From TrEMBL:
InterPro entries: Macro_dom, Macro_dom-like
Domain named Macro: residues: 86-200
Pfam families the UniProt entry points to: Macro (PF01661)
Organism: Zophobas morio
Name of the protein: Macro domain-containing protein
Length: 200
């Protein structure tokens, strides 16, 4: 909505019912009466400065430790006794509290870093990568073309997040699976995970 020569930006709730316009050439102040319920609706619908409405913060997501556990007992009656007296993967609430299982748009996460799986030329086109590049803006592609250029299989490269809510993007190149080189593929994939986890 416009009053006089300026857009109304109702940041002060104390002005409910009145909006000041100070941009006239005569520098005179004019008060235009606006119904207070309309002004309050504008304030309530307004986004915080610089924050998109779909940004997802980890503090608002449910952690694994907060999800009710479901125990599925294995039936060993056909194969004899269990191989382990105790579970080799015991329940650890401290570790589970660090893990969040979430499905959504990775480009909307407000975190320190997100991971982008790409190819060695760092220009792979897939729904996730395309969304990351679209939201990050042209500066991301410019940084890759000028400063990084490529990433070898099993390696990682780190860029700024630019327009993303995330501060950084960790790019990594996974192996192309081939049954003839199964061990090599598995080892390279393990290296990808390890390098991503070691980035500081």
């Amino acid at each position: 909505m416009r009053t006089g020569h300026r857009d109304i930006s109702p940041f002060a709730p104390s002005l409910a019912g009145k909006v000041a316009c100070s941009s006239c050439a005569s520098r005179r102040r004019h008060l235009n009466i606006i119904p207070s319920e309309y002004l309050m609706r504008i304030i309530m619908n307004q986004e915080p400065l610089g924050v998109a409405s779909d940004v997802v913060h980890p503090n608002n997501l449910t952690r694994w430790s907060e999800i009710a556990s479901a125990h599925y007992l294995t039936d060993y009656s056909a194969s004899g006794a269990p191989k382990h007296n105790n579970s080799p993967f015991p329940y650890d609430p401290e570790i589970n509290h660090k893990i969040i299982l979430w499905s959504g748009d990775i480009s909307a996460l407000q975190v320190d870093a997100i991971v982008n799986s790409t190819n060695e030329s760092m220009n792979e086109s897939n729904p996730v990568s395309d969304r990351i590049f679209q939201r990050a803006g042209s500066e991301l592609k410019e940084e890759i073309n000028l400063d990084i250029r490529e990433c070898r299989t099993g390696d990682v490269r780190v860029t700024q997040g630019h327009a993303l809510p995330a501060r950084y993007i960790i790019h990594t190149v996974g192996p192309k699976y081939n049954i003839k080189y199964q061990s090599a593929s598995e080892n390279t994939l393990h290296i990808c995970y390890r390098f991503v986890d070691e980035v500081e």
